[in-house]
Amino acid sequence: MSTIPNFPYTRDARLKTRYEVIRLFLEVKNRTVVAKTTRVSRRLVNEWVTAYLSDGLKALDIKKQSGCPCLWLNIKTKVPA
């Protein structure tokens, strides 16, 4: 049986959910049961478990989202001529 790691403390609810999914997976070893228990899609459970098994806890970190800057900020910062 796998030992369950001590997950670091976080106030981020999304990260807590990921840690809970991994903790439950290490206990149950069934991704479908984990998805139903935590009410997270099986696709996300599969992604998080695969990432955890390949790279450990670091793989579960929330990455900064890239994308187009907010249009509202661009409009407010323009100086009228």
**Compute the gyration radius: what is it?**
18 Å
User: What class would the helix/strand composition place it in?
Assistant: mainly alpha
The oligomeric status of these chains comes to single chain
**Major sheet:** none
Give the % helix: 55-70%
Total number of helices: 4
Q: Span between N and C termini?
A: 69 Å
Number of domains: 1
| Spans where pLDDT lies below 50 across 5 or more residues | none
- Mean pLDDT, to the nearest integer, reads 85
Sum up the overall morphology in one term.
Answer: globular
Number of strands: 0
* Helix-strand sequence: HHHH
Tell me the fraction of residues in β-strands, as a range.
under 5%
Q: How would you describe the overall organization of this protein?
A:
It is built from four helices and no strands. Helix 1 runs antiparallel to helix 2, helix 1 (13-28) packs across helix 3 and helix 2 packs across helix 3 (42-55). The protein has one domain. By secondary structure, it is mostly helical. The protein has helices at residues 13-28, 31-38, 42-55, 71-77. The mean pLDDT is 85. Pfam families: HTH_23. It comes from Pseudoalteromonas arctica. This is Helix-turn-helix domain-containing protein. InterPro entries: Homeodomain-like_sf.
